[in-house]
Amino acid sequence: VQRLRAGAMDIEYPYADAAARRQLLYRLPSVPVPRRLLVLAEAAADDALGDSWGGPITHRALSDPGGLAPGGGALFEAVALPRLAGNAAPLLAAVHGLLVPGGVVIGGVTDRSAARKPQRLRASLIAAGFQQPECWYVQPGMESPMALVPCDALAAKAHFVRAARAARSLYSPPAYVLRLLAARLGIVAWRQTELFFWARKPC
Amino acid sequence: VLDEVLQLVAARGWFDTTRAYEKSIHLTQGACLWLLLTRGGVSDTYVKCSTHLSLETEARRCAEASRCYATLVPRFVGHAQDGSLHVLACRAVEYGAFLAGARAFEDLRRYFAATTAAQLPADLKPVPNADLRQSLGGYFAAHPLASWIERTLDGPALRRAEALPDLPQHGDLVVNNFGQTASGALVIFDWEDFGASCLPGLDLFTLELSLAGGDAARLLAARMRADDPTQRFQRAACSAMRLDWADYAALTPIYALVFRHLKRNYGPGVRERFDRVLLELSRRAFP
To answer: What's the start-to-end Cα distance of chain A, in Å?
Structure first.
């Protein structure tokens, strides 16, 4: 098939690219000025998270202990943790120490078992000293996000029921009934494998 | 962004954020994002926002759609701007998937009948049918199918199109933009292109293409099955719009060009899909 190219007058919008939408997730919560951001990550793919951040950015590896040592006091208005996994409590406590009052920790959880327990993540954030934790399921996934669904059980269930109904015409009647049932019973929410979150250090 | 949007929505009295509510955040591949605000999981308010482009014209189009088709369109609430941040809000309705049944087709037939009476301010109708040649010719000049497009624009179909009355079209009337309430009533979403084309029959073509899965070959094959309920509906819709079926069929390449032109602001994937429609149509003969 002949590959057709877009015309010169076509407009390219900022969120057409999955990476741009991923960056947008990190800009959703309000962050105090001067918006110094620390990205704590291992994967090279996460280096681009701050590309459109609008403030100074520091990159450190999670495996670098120096990256977590508060050098003479709080240094950042935001800390990004794109791949939080396993036992998050010690890391969140360290991040809390790196933030200015009112600063925000923003991140993703890609650990399947941890993502199924958003209430545990919320508890970890509060235990680390953060306030107003917000946790979201990421649809369809962190690499190419299109929606953040609240983890609150009722709201999540309503969202997935709504999504099943909206896609009704794509499925056979038995498959639709099964999908709707799974959404109503909370199974679709339980099967989510990725979380996005943010929380604020008290002022 | 999020806090500013919610503060603006609350300050305008569009949604009471002091009572418990939930929000889901929907990203797009364009320049906007939108929020669905719910209470206890029940849809309440839809909020679209952007710091990249003005939503003022879209808000006016939504307001006009609410006015023209009150029973089919979620109620427009308002538009606000704070610096570079634009926000528009509509009431959200609970809905399910569009099922192509008798009730849905009757609601759609009523919509097509009502399009003949819809009136929009002149500035919301940027391309009168009389200017189609200029508008499409300029846009497609560098397109890989430019020679076929040029021949099409020089042919009798365009002259038929130019002679039709200017009737504001939804502009993206596809199955994905339909919902049905629990009572089965049709709801039509996404009015951002309302009036961007005034070519009668465009909405019927986009619907027909959508029902054919976006495949022009399937669309043309379906037209040969006159006893098909969808085909009967299309003839009824043409009749409701006082548009001759033969004219509608002959205008197919023009509709496709207008639709592709409207899609110029969408992502490259969408444009490429519609270019495939043009490619298929370029292999066919139309009266």
So the answer is: 59
| CA geometry: angle B104, B109, B110, nearest 5 deg | 100
- The Cα of B246 is separated from the nearest Cα of chain A by a number of Å equal to 30
**Quick check: B205 and B172 in contact, CB under 8 A?**
no
Strand, coil or helix: B82:
strand
Whether residue A3 is predicted with pLDDT greater than 50 in this model: the reply is: no
**Closest to A166 (Cα-Cα) out of B178, B46, B48:** B178
Amino acid making up residue B185: A
Q: Is there a contact between A80 and A26 (Cβ–Cβ < 8 Å)?
A: yes
DSSP assignments along B86-149, one per residue? EEEEEE----B----SHHHHHHHHHHHHHHTT----GGG--S-GGGHHHHHHHHHTTSTTHHHH
Q: What is the pLDDT of residues B106-140, one digit of tens each?
A: 999 999 999 999 999 999 988 899 999 999 998 89
For B139, which of A9, A12, A169 is closest by C-beta distance?
A9
Give the predicted TM-score (pTM) of the model. 0.88
ipTM: 0.90
